[in-house]
Amino acid sequence: MIDQETVFTTDHDSVSSYPSFATPTEVGDAIIKAGFNVVESANNHIDDFGEGFLTDTLNFWKTKYPDVTLLGIHDSQEDADTVKIREVNGIKIAFLDYTYGTNVGGIEGKDYMIDMIRKDKITAMIQKAKQQADCIIFVAHWGTEDETMPNEYEKQWAAYLMEQGVNVIIGGHPHVLQPYGRLTDDKGNETVVFYSLGNFVSTQQKLEELLGGMAKFTIQKTVQDGKTSIEILTPTVEPLVMHYNSDAGEFGPYMLSDYTEELASQNGVQSYIGSGVFTLDNLKKKFNEIMSMNVTPSTGTNLLDVTIDTDLNMIDASGNVVEDTDSITAEKYYADKGIDITSEDFNSADNNSGSTDDSSDDGSYDDSYSDDGSYDEGSYDDGSYDDSEE
Predict the structure, then answer these.
(1) How far apart are CA 240 and CA 216, in angstroms?
(2) 109 exposure class (CB count in 10 Å sphere: 0-12, 13-18, 19+)
(3) What is the pLDDT of residues 67-101, one digit of tens each?
(4) Which SUPFAM superfamilies match (predicted)?
(5) Quick one: pLDDT at residue 379?
(6) CB 172 within 8 Å of CB 196
(7) Assuming Cys at both sites, which of 49, 78, 180, 360 could form a disulfide with 194, CB separation 3.0 to 4.6 Å?
(8) What confidence tens digit (pLDDT) does each residue in 6-30 have?
């Protein structure tokens, strides 16, 4: 599964970069060649060029790769009301994909074309998905760009999606990694949330923007006495590095474990941030820093009904701007805790233990990670189940 954040065009003269993006269709071919079969498209750039390129993108996927599960954009109301499901190893997985908003504000008169985060619509689609599938994966385009700490909007929506029965939440938009964790409540609801996986392929110009992540987890389905249950086992984030070198014609992601100091020294980002910054050691330290943050779950609900306009203002039903007074930045998080993130002890590998928060009032995060960032799951019966990994 991949988030394709730009529209496609067959006209190479129309290819465009920041701030309005249009990508040659050859990128779509490369996505398929790389092995992806689920494509997320609900994001803030999807209407950068209006209905025309959005329609071209829909037509590209539906005519050239009809077997791809395309999420977040639609050519009809009927398609928008249809839950997209893939069956893997006997497990029916429903995919939902929504964005906080777009840079243009959507397609006038055709709201169905882009899935926007709206509470009533999402609630109805989750209920429909629960009737048709075993497991629900919700993809959310949310958060604050270049901020490694999830904001209040993300946290309120994560809690709400958990309450509605979503099994896994995968976030994007900040262009940097954010922590992940297991969210639970006292009613037996549980979800795994990856707040942001950062960038997969980009040529952005900061170390944090070239450090991404690959979410991995196992979906376990158990059928007993005619009842089906789903567990999400061993969720982890595998760190990635985006490597680009225009002179050598090299563009592509690496697993951080496979990346070398020599490659880091040749990365095109060196010309933007100076020597001695983009190093293998600093990439590892930044990953540990982000994954060590404890995210306090939100009990608020005031942001669930807001819409976000093209100026990124949160607007309530009466048209008033809603101020976010609860979010904190990663910088403030560490300052409040008196933690020196440059220290050797802080940046050790053992400090990467996933996202938990023992100080949370409701204990919503399950503090059961092992030192390698994975969950310790030792209580399930593995004698009879199908499993699949997305």
Answers:
(1) 13
(2) exposed
(3) 999 999 999 999 999 999 999 999 999 999 999 99
(4) Metallo-dependent phosphatases
(5) 28
(6) yes
(7) 180
(8) 999 999 999 999 999 999 999 999 9
pLDDT at 20: 95
Burial class (CB in 10 A: 0-12, 13-18, 19+), 371: exposed
Residue 154 and residue 51: Cα distance in Å, rounded? 28
| Distance (Å) of CA 148 to CA 295, 313, 327, 350 | 11, 20, 12, 20
Instruction: Please give the single-letter amino acid code of residue 288.
Output: N
The strands making up 314-315's β-sheet, listed across from edge to edge, are 307-308, 314-315, 321-322
Cβ contact 176:205 at 8 Å: no
* Beta-strand runs (E) in 264-380: 307-308, 314-315, 321-322
Answer whether 365's CB lies under 8 Å from 162's CB.
Answer: no
Do the Cβ atoms of 73 and 41 come closer than 8 Å?
yes
**How many residues are listed for the chain in this entry?**
390
Closest to 85 (Cα-Cα) out of 44, 26, 137: 137
CA distance 51 to 110: 9
Residue 36: Cβ-neighbour burial (10 angstroms; 0-12, 13-18, 19+)? middle
CA neighbours closer than 13 Å in the CB half-sphere of residue 226? 0
DSSP 199-258: -SS---SSHHHHEEEEEEEEEEEEEETTEEEEEEEEEEEEEEEEEEETTTTEEEEEEGGG
Nearest CA among 186, 41, 20 for reference residue 103: 20
CA distance linking residue 55 with residue 31, whole number of Å: 19
Chain segment 234-284, per-residue pLDDT in tens: 999 999 999 999 999 999 999 999 999 999 999 999 999 988 999 999 999
Cβ contacts of residue 25 below 8 Å, gap of 6+? 8, 9, 10, 60
